[in-house]
Design brief:
Strand order of the largest sheet of chain A: 5-4-3-2-1-14
Distance between the termini of chain A: 59 Å
Largest sheet of chain A: 6 strands, mixed
Oligomer: homodimer
Shape of chain A: elongated
Number of strands of chain A: 19
Radius of gyration of chain A: 25 Å
Number of helices of chain A: 15
């Protein structure tokens, strides 16, 4: 059998656009002599559609798009994912289309993705479909991970329609999982994934075909649309998994996520508040890479506590990137605001209030530029500072999307060095100086927090590895430090609740992967 | 059988406090001669605990609390709800405790609450438990709504451990549902609910016992802790459902939610930005009712576009409530900010940018007061303006909690009149003047939006009744108006994404009950 795999970038609700892409691939598959062409989970609708999955108009349009696609499938079988209304619920299904007719639907058994448990129901699960004498087990989404699935000994091909979200390290883990499954089940195995960004999600592609030995015999691109036809009957050479570089993958994931966020929303221009620090430098460099230097603008907003080198570093970055940048001091606004509100302060001294006030003015200035000229504000927070609440709500937390919010500070540094791999875009000073919010004299992040090397290790254990304070302390970390970090993490959930969408790059993205109540007794966990 | 019902207000994670309340009620039940005492779903842990439900430390503490409670149950049977780890998942369960021993767990069959689908697994469902010769069907949470549950003909009592969230009209609907079920199943039926606020949730209590005729034979209080012992064998008079007044219930729900948000978080003081408008007036009046006038403070922040009557109305409200209020003009700050940023505006004229700038300064001023003196900022947005995005993100959307965000504008007026039922707290002018943000000369909300009477009806159909644009137009509304409202609703999801928690008072709270993708092709729904 000649099998075509179409790995495409869909837009949620763009049934005309998605169908057109799918039909184009059907035609290409026929041209190349394929008997079967396959598409990802919920390809027709795009994913995740959340409550649109229960909107009758949305489902009806999806069904109509399916009919139209079916009309273009004469002389070929197509298997394409879509949400489907069955009785009183919507399920994630695959339509089997043969010679222009929809001959069968296969549904997903267990809905486990957090993006879908509120919106989709469970169904029967995988089924064996005969396509030109080849027995194909059609498995939707995460069902492939159900332990001990028994496809029977007659199955020739396992077809896994996926919608796997990128996270660090997943490409290699997934490759190994599927390779072992093909070998264990003694069947060929084809995996078809989405690519593309959907607000905070990046689908990374890397669709693959394995043979019964667990060898990879076809490998589609990562982070790009791709199409290939594989002759399953031919003796094919085993392909190695392309070398995976963590920074390169993160870089490509962010670029794709940012690109699709802008294109699918009809945005073209972005602005970034440039502090001279590492986070805004990396955010801005990525924006320029994706949108072009003519579409990115930097706003440098020094206060009376800004050091000379900050403005210099910010200007140098803007010059290296070749973007328009403006210096807009906040001092007069800050002075006016303080004069107006300070009489209410009962004579209390300078504290975090005045620091936040400056950050609020930064946020307001960025939003003003955005409102007046259409530059979309990019948030510059990282995961470390969001986790411990070392942020000003409505200040540096503003923005339409956070592209670094799922990277720990140490990972932001690592990505910065990757960005500098060919030429120095981010200055040595930005890379090496001690991080500071510069909202009070001589301020440094380490005045409040452990060194980021230590903080990030503790946070990773707390968040990604779900370890308790006691477990981390037992592993050799100072109990009081761990307790302080955990306490900060819990106490600052209220800020994260109001943060912009964070581009997901890890298995536990703040605000999505670990949801804690905002009102509860903290002591039970310490 | 003498059955004790303990309707209590729990704090998530406060195992010591929750156990202590439960044990106190066990003692009281024994004192009053009850053979069985029952508690709500997930009483021991508090609810909803989100990802704490999968935290081993949390579950272990919950288990320990259960053991301690069991130790106090000699000479009585207790049925108490808790999350329980079973194999690789956590389920919502009831522990049956008899004579100091945990004799059985009953689990919830279908997890359907949006607060739990990401965190809990399904289980076996109801079981019949024999307590002193009485056959009791123990049913956890929403399982009671599974169609055609068959408890068998030997069941004497159906026990429904609930955690029902308040929404408008639910008390009467629930009463009717349970009454019919008792009659249909020809069994007595006891419903045990939580009361209390958990951030955005209010549990409303109203625990009830019905006899086989469907008559209510015991009725606990709404919105308050309560305890009662019912002799199921005695001939008891049928009680009518206490009269339900929508405004009174909403008023009590908000008061309870606000009270518990403050008490459970250890807060005591609140501030409100007073505009002279209806939303801030109602928010402030409720805060004073809950926290006391000495703990509420108003900030009046006129701009050059504020009318005289706005400040007068705001001052009058503060005086009627007897709270401290300060007038802090934002004009100088606004002027300074405009002077700093306007050179970047390419000569473009005054537009929504300058309106938002004023709102951002309002937000910053409120946060400054909060940061310096510990006043928690109460958000004043209503559901109508949030739905159509007639708000300034990081401006009037700031706050720790939104207490009116699930009330349409017309409902806010209705609540205002209820607040004025005994004495005039909110001025006639605030009640009758045309709503305006007063961020540009002569501005009125109706410059942008349909009249609220019309807008609210359309929004209710779109949001609560899930009707499509076509359906609403067919019902007699102007197509273009409906389409405009729906387009605004969809396009402004990005603002609602970053809003504070909204106290839930309806069946479809924005941001919780109807979740739409932020990036998608809008045209598919129009």
């Amino acid at each position: 059998m000649k099998l075509a795999l179409a790995q495409l970038d869909y837009t949620i609700g763009d049934f005309a656009g998605n169908s057109s892409k799918i039909i184009h691939s059907v035609r290409q598959a026929k041209t190349e002599g394929a008997q079967l062409v396959v598409f990802a989970e919920q390809a027709i609708s795009g994913r995740p559609a959340y409550d649109l999955l229960n909107d009758p108009v949305f489902l009806e349009q999806c069904r109509e798009a399916l009919e139209e696609i079916a009309g273009h499938c004469n002389g070929i079988t197509a298997i394409v994912g879509l949400p489907l209304q069955v009785e009183n619920k919507t399920i994630s299904a695959a339509a089997i289309i043969r010679d222009g007719k929809i001959v069968k639907f296969v549904g997903k058994r267990n809905v486990i993705s957090r993006d879908e448990t509120q919106h989709l129901g469970n169904s029967k699960g995988f089924e064996i479909v005969d396509v030109d004498g080849v027995n194909i087990a059609v498995v939707i989404g995460s069902d492939i991970h159900i332990p001990n699935l028994d496809f029977g000994s007659d199955t020739d091909l396992i077809l896994s329609l996926k919608s796997t979200i990128y996270s660090r390290g997943i490409v290699a883990r997934r490759h190994e999982f599927y390779s072992k499954m093909a070998y264990r089940k003694q069947a060929k195995l084809a995996v078809l994934n989405h690519i593309g960004g959907q607000t905070d999600i990046v689908y990374d592609g890397w669709s693959t075909v394995f043979n019964e030995k667990g060898e990879c015999i076809a490998q589609l691109k990562g982070f790009e649309e791709d199409f290939t036809v594989v002759d399953l009957a031919a003796p094919l050479e085993a392909l190695p998994l392309p070398e995976q570089n963590k920074n390169a993958n993160v870089y490509r994931a962010i670029k794709l996520g940012l690109h699709d966020f802008f294109v699918k929303n009809g945005f073209s221009k972005a602005c970034v508040g440039l502090s001279g620090g590492i986070d805004s430098a990396v955010t801005c460099a990525l924006a320029v890479e994706v949108l072009g230097r003519e579409n990115v603008r930097g706003l440098i907003m020094p206060s009376k506590y800004s050091s000379d080198h900050s403005v210099e570093d910010a200007v140098a970055l803007a010059q290296n990137l070749g973007i328009r940048h403006d210096i807009v001091p906040i001092t007069d606004t800050y002075t006016a605001m303080r004069e107006a509100i300070t009489p209410l302060f009962d004579g209390k001294p300078f504290d975090v209030t005045e620091e936040n006030m400056q950050a609020h003015i930064h946020g307001a200035m960025l939003m003003a530029l955005s409102n007046k000229l259409g530059y979309i504000v990019l948030n510059t927070n990282n995961k470390s500072e969001s986790a411990v609440g070392y942020t000003t709500l409505y200040g540096d937390t503003v923005g339409a999307i956070s592209i670094l919010g799922d990277l720990y500070k140490t990972e932001v540094y690592s990505l910065a060095r990757y960005i500098n791999r060919k030429e120095r875009i981010i200055s040595e000073n930005t890379l090496t100086k001690a991080p500071s919010a510069e909202l009070r004299p001589e301020q440094k992040d380490t005045d409040y927090l452990p060194d980021y090397e230590l903080l990030d290790v503790i946070l990773y254990r707390l968040i990604e590895e779900n370890q308790s304070v006691d477990e981390i302390a037992t592993a050799g970390f100072d109990y009081d430090t761990v307790k302080k970090v955990y306490t900060l993490f819990i106490r600052n959930g209220y800020k994260r609740y109001q943060n912009p969408p964070v581009l997901r790059l890890s298995t536990v993205t703040l605000g999505k992967g670990k949801i804690l109540p905002l009102t509860y007794d903290l002591s039970c966990l310490l």
